Sequence to fold (438 residues):
Amino acid sequence: MDMALPVVNATAAVLARVSAAFNAPFARAVVFGVHIDGHLVVEGLLIAVIVFQLTRKSYKPPKKPLTEKEIDELCDEWEPELLCPPIKDGARIDTPMLESAAGPHTIVDGKEVVNFASANYLGLIGNEKIIDSCVGSLEKYGVGSCGPRGFYGTIDVHLDCEAKIAKFLGTPDSILYSYGISTIFSVIPAFCKKGDIIVADEGVHWAVQNGLHLSRSTVVYFKHNDMASLASTLEKLTRGNKRAEKIRRYIVVESIYQNSGQIAPLDEIVRLKEKYRFRVILEESHSFGVLGKSGRGLAEHYGVPVEKIDIITAGMGNALATDGGFCTGSVRVVDHQRLSSSGYVFSASLPPYLASAAVSAVNYLEENPSVLANLRSNIALLHKGLSDTPGLEISSHVLSPIVFLKLKKSTGTCLYILSPTGLEGRFSFHCDIEEVKS
Fold:
């Protein structure tokens, strides 16, 4: 208050002087017998200035064009804004370079290493039968298809692969996609539209999140792998809501979550789906060829009839060691995608040799079910070897081929290594068919 008082006094003094100036005799004038005070004169001048500025013509550059020399000088002086901030030397990452197949043992930068970062769960990279099928397909069809499926891009081997996958899973039909990760975020917008309701696990990975965003549906998340939270969410959305009964409703989950290594309890999800009359979209990229007695995925693992799952998607770049993806379900579900799924309609079809590799990989899995026992043995061995690691604990499911480690006592930051999952703050190892040596 003491410091503010002089300022207040000074301001009052200035106002008093201005008032006195306007009330002084010389600030008054008589125009045609009318007395005009000083403040009216000032206000009139201000109005005149404003009118003058408004009526002025806008500035026009000189009509004389710039010379080439002036244009060159301006271009030399112009510096475009950077698209991204400069990367400091300490922040640069030197990407490891593979010099051999990405098998369990590979060569990185000239050194042989054990590969824990690959999703080669069944060890099919380098399988001779699969390589032979690819060579035969290359000789017959060439490298690529050079066209979408609906425009001279459908080759007989594509139809063979779709039929093989449908028969293996026990579904009526299936459809191939050219890129594994694009499968799920093309399928979701193909069925889910603006105004629909999607109840999704909050732990789904980026591709599923992207599909949810592209659908423009109303998305409600439930707690990760928490069935009580799912039941509560479904109850809140449907209880007394007559509008919800007339719109499409979906539950979106992953079988083995890429961001946590947890397995979704499909039996409980199906029970809740039937109770509240929702449809289920199941993403099986990390469970196809891994879970179940014969590798048929989460439905076989829980003994749930596959027809109770409305839509199943999976990428083929993991257990099958090829590329692309597929969606399987009823004939109507598949046919709808052939006309309305962007990843299928607008992308060049899957290179035929990759479709041949997928067929050979499924055949190999059917003929050699023992590879699943070997995979589970390796997962158990890796769990045993990592269980006594000081300060760390395993957070993933005992059947997950993606093994996550987390700090027992987190300090807010930790190191992230050997993981293609993109989940910060955790370690991740992939277990494959070759023997894991301590």
Residues 71 and 77 are 10 Å apart (CA to CA). The chain has 15 helices and 14 strands. The two ends are 75 Å apart (CA to CA). Residues 413-428, 433-438 have pLDDT under 50 and may be disordered.
